[in-house]
Amino acid sequence: MNVQVSASWLFGISTIVALWIAPDKSAALVAAGLLLGGLMGAWLLAWVGRARATRVALLGCLGLAVTAGAAMLALYAVMSGSLAAEAQSSAINANVLAGALVISLAMGAMGAVWLWAQLVPSPRWWIVAALAVWGVLWLGSALVLIATGSRGAWGALLVAALAAAGWMLRPWAARRMRGAGAAVDAAFLVAAATGVALWLGWLQMAPPDLPAGDRVALWRDGLALAGDAPFTGSGLRSTMMALSTYVYILHVGYISHVHNLYLELAVEQGAAGADRLALSGLLGFERAGAS
User: Fold this and answer.
1) Helix/strand/coil (H, E, C) string of 198-254?
2) Rounded to whole angstroms, how far apart are CA atoms 270 and 17?
3) Backbone angles phi, psi at 154, to 5 degrees
4) Confidence class for position 291, pLDDT limits 50, 70, 90
5) Which of 183, 184, 177 is nearest to 163 (CA)?
């Protein structure tokens, strides 16, 4: 059994354990369904795209579908008043909206690359029309992303773009210089470790009397909660209960997340859940770079 399969199995097991111990089973069941459904969907895409020709077409169609989904999300955000100063109850949080759009727009670029590759050898009107429609949808979603004013989303996109560029150069460098592939791998590990160390150091240097709900305070409190249950976590959709009970000492819920995906996974599913998800992603990048 290879490492990717093992990591996926362990992530699935950590999800089931987190569902088992969750205080709110109905909410946790929805979260578990989304997590396990996404995991199975990723493996289904990997299985369908075993052949290179099929994989390219599959990724292109996926990029087009994601672009359409991003456009629908952006339209809903505009119509629901999510970008207004006084958002309605049906509105999407601006940071959540930006996080979804920045991922969708990055994935949607695959659709344009695939359509362009089809257009170059055999120019056809329907490919040109599809590219034009893609451009309208993509640019419209990008404008909504800009309107959210989320600096974190743009920062994440910049880091992801630099990482992707470095990873795409890895096979080219490995073919021309002995040991270049290992050097790139080491550089990625050093960069990741340095980033985590700087983040932890920043949390330690931040003032201790930050207001409840401040992002840095949430990260610090999330690390404390993850340390209390490092192997199992506190259960799916339990962050609000855990923060109110053990941190803020409140009898009502205050905030439902800690503003960090991997830290949220560590709080709810333990270090195993966060580690296995990160490992699966890294191995996916490695396979993409190798191919």
Assistant:
1) HHHHHHHHCCCCCCCCCHHHHHHHHHHHHHHCCCCCCCCCCHHHHHHHHHCCCCCCC
2) 10
3) -65, -40
4) very low
5) 184
Residue whose C-alpha is closest to residue 220's, from 236, 240, 205: 205
283 half-sphere exposure, CB direction, 13 A CA radius: 16
d(CA 177, CA 208): 49
Cα–Cα distance measured from residue 52 to residue 139, given in angstroms and rounded to the nearest whole number: 29
Take residue 279 and report the two structure tokens written for it: 């490992």
Mean pLDDT rounded to a whole number for the chain: 84
Do 111 and 60 touch, CB atoms closer than 8 A? yes
Both ends of the chain: CA-CA distance in Å? 21
**Residues 28, 31, 37, 38: is their CA dihedral positive or negative?**
negative
* Spatial separation of the C-alpha atoms in residues 53 and 51, rounded to whole Å: 6
Number of other CB atoms surrounding residue 252 within 10 Å: 7
* Residue 89 pLDDT: 61
Distances (CA, A) of 166 to 79, 184, 264: 39, 8, 28
217: nearest Cα among 230, 227, 208, 228: 208
Name residues whose C-beta falls within 8 Å of residue 209's C-beta, 6 or more positions apart in sequence: none
pTM: 0.77
CA–CA separation, 274 and 252 (whole Å): 27
Strands, DSSP E only, in 36-133?
none
Q: Where are the beta strands (DSSP E) in the chain?
A: none
Give the model confidence (pLDDT) of 102-157 as tens digits. Answer: 999 999 998 999 999 988 888 888 899 999 999 999 999 999 999 988 888 888 88
The most confident of 111-115, 201-205, 286-290, by mean pLDDT: 111-115
